[in-house]
Amino acid sequence: MIPLRDEVPSRTFPLVTVMLIAANVMVFVYQLMLGPQLNRFFHQFAVIPTLYFHDVYFTAGGAIRPVDAADLAVPLFTSMFLHGGWLHLLGNMLYLWIFGDNVEDRMGHGRFVAFYILCGLVASAAHIWANPASRVPSVGASGAIAGVLSAYVLLYPRARVVVLLPIWFFLSLYRVPAILFLGFWFVQQFFLGMLSLNVASAQTGGVAWWAHIGGFVAGLALVKLFARKKHR
Fold first, then answer.
1. What residues pair up with 2 in beta bridges, in sequence order?
2. In this structure, is residue 163 part of a structural domain?
3. Are 14 and 112 in contact (CB under 8 A)?
4. What's the CATH code of the domain at 131?
5. Which DSSP category does 68 fall into?
6. Exposure winner among 28, 33, 40, 81, fewest CB in 10 A?
7. Short-list 59, 22, 24, CA closest to 41
8. Residue among 33, 34, 39 nearest 62 (CA)
9. What predicted TM-score, i.e. pTM, was given to this entire model?
């Protein structure tokens, strides 16, 4: 199922959501301009789990150097704005656009920024915990966006989402409860995340399932702290 839009109108302009989307797109365009230097760029600004458990690591060029505080702290923030391809970027930005505006509407611009960043940090921590031996750079906004999704479910439990469902050669539109659509999304992430534990391929590549799980759970835990009371 591909979400197209929700049916909850926003009362305010989603300034932060738009700025986050613009920032992700601009960073991705910059990535495209790097050419062969992209791998080195990812090794510097993406989350590499093994760095958090060792004092030295291999750089993109194969050299060995000690891990410093910047190697650990900076990627936790910058990795949220990096993406591995067009589909990765477009999928994340579609979910952020559909669900982010309403969550921002309930939290306010400043609180929404803090909420988004915190969910992203927890998502990275969950990914690091689940893949301690991985040397693969982890990138993407999906962990932070997962927190937005869980916040949306709690803030708008009766909302509905218009989804595109391909059936054989036909495309059909359906209105489904957001809690059902996003609940199914989380169950899928959790199931695949459990299957990925202690699997060699999870240490060498693939989807960061536990980043999605961590971000979603962080959103559930933090939403009440950041959401303002709903006006009548």
1. 164
2. yes
3. no
4. 1.20.1540.10
5. -
6. 33
7. 59
8. 39
9. 0.90
d(CA 47, CA 57): 13
Interatomic CA distance for residues 120 and 118, integer angstroms? 5
CA atoms of 103 and 17, how far apart (whole Å): 9
- Amino acid type, 25: V
Q: What is the pLDDT along the chain (232 residues), one digit of tens a residue?
A: 789 999 999 999 999 999 999 999 999 999 999 999 999 999 899 999 988 988 766 565 666 767 888 889 999 999 999 999 999 999 999 999 999 999 999 999 999 999 999 999 999 999 999 999 888 999 999 999 999 999 999 999 999 999 988 877 778 898 999 999 999 999 999 998 888 776 654 554 568 899 999 999 999 999 999 998 765 4
Domain of 55, in residue numbers: 2-226
Closest among 14, 2, 12, 7 to 159, alpha carbons compared: 7
**Number of domains, the chain:** 1
42-138-56 Cα angle (round to 5): 70
d(CA 219, CA 34): 34
Would residue 231 count as lying in a domain?
no
